[in-house]
Amino acid sequence: xxxxxxxMLALAxxxxxxxxxxxxxNPFADPNSELxxxxxxxxxxxxxxxxxxxxxxxxxxxxxxxxTMTATGYNNADKTNxxxxxxxxxxxxxxxxxxxxxxxxxxxxxxxxRAGADKVLITTDYTGDPTxxxxxxxxxxxxxxxxWATFSxxxxxxxxxxxxxxxxxxxxxxxxxxxxxxxxVKNLYIVGGQVPASGSEVAQGGTADSPYTVAEALAIIxxxxxxxxEVYVTGIVSKIxxxxxxxxxNATYYISDDGGTTTQLEVFRGYAxxxxxxxxxxxxxxxxxxxxxxxxxxxxxxxxxxxxxGSKIVSFGDNGSTVIPEGGTSNNPFTVAQAISVINSxxxxxxxxxxxxxxxxxxxxxxxxxxTYYISDDGKAANELQIYSGKGLNGADFAALTDLKVGDEVVVKGxxxxxxxxxxxxxxxxxxxxxxxxxxxxxxxxxxxxxxxDATIDLSTLGLKDKAKLTTPITTGDFTLSFGGAxxxxxxYTATKGFRLYxxxxxxxxxxxxxxxxxxxxxxxxxxxxxxxxxxxLHANAGSAKVTPTFAAPLVSFAGFNSKNLTIVNDWSEANxxxxxxxxxxxxxxxx
Length: 592
Description:
The structure is a single chain. This protein is mostly beta strands. It is built from three helices and 44 strands. The radius of gyration is 27 Å and the shape is globular.
């Protein structure tokens, strides 16, 4: 029932990707992230029902449309109504720690004079079947909307009988065979405290759902009211001073409300989308004239109002007006960075063309004669687009995984989408053109020397039992070795004289008092395999600084930091698999 313009906007990437920002309380952050203090339930409904369940007893269910959950029995295509009843039910919410709490969500409610019902329900005794559950109706009065762009705000203080217990809330709608209303809902949460007296948002702007304008941000900074809390600001990129894609991976640029340079806010050394570093592959996403929402800390530095170092872009565009890079056609394919940007902003449902270099080959599917592989703009296994179950040139069958090679430059046609948080081109895609990679010269390993090391930790001398799982810290001399991360638990093996760190495992090397500037790992090799971890993903963290290693198997070196501890991460693109990091000795160099 949307007007045509909103249908077109939806097809042209109306969804906006939000990234959580530490702004408490902020009900509009990623609904799958850890709940912030004082927030008991949050769901944006930006791409689906999230942790809510849908129970439909008849007719048309709640569906996800226009980045909302939508309920209507009316079919705009054939102008008919369907008798319907459907519940959108929250997960169980524990309010045992709440002394006060209220429910809030944004909604558009139209055609309220027509047959049917729209209710907000709550219960402390959910039976598992909404039709046999005793619900309390807390709907009150829903505000009738006059268009499809303006959202109203529902806020209801929860009665004390719901506190100190576990509750579920539900949104119920019904329609008849002759008539229906329409209800759209987004950004639903239960938060501790009282409903704001003004009936406004939890935060007066600066949130993901209600970012500051540049003018508002400047006013806050200049009035001395800026705090250390992160906030959101939306503006148009008006000037770019620098995009560093080598040492720091950040950019210094400016945003303004009108795209001009008269009244602008500096973003000092900010990061790319979702806090990623800027690289040669994704730097094209930041251009003058692009509308961005930035999350970070506002400050006044040497009389210059700015976002302090470390901010990040969380979305491009707003209110359905996402900035779409030009391209995606056969004559002007998207780069991989542009394709990922489009996906993050809400991918189109039509086929597009993407050009990239094959960075990984993962699977040949004999049943479909297809290959799943990855492409990137620079051929490296980072900032990649997965090409799922793809066909060959102009749709030809593949015979084996070797039909493609890493380094081949291809233009691929298909539908791009987000699949469980990863950018992907869906199955049934085809290669339009392919330029085979030239034979690569053997790579010369970097020179790494352990000469001059101040300390050596020989893991075979620590007295560990064979196949011991590394779940507790190990102290040896002034050093403590601790383990964490995800995936399989790290293990010590006597036969290989060291630790095995699997995909997503972490190992922290810490000195009791001295700063460390370099660590070299001596690793195991067996049957021609150098167990030096996943080269394109292995990294380390020294505080907030990320350290990229150099390799000269069996040695792996981490340098360019100055810290009492270093956390080494054997990261990987999948949940498991990849190459183990088998550490035998650790050479440590102190700051002088």
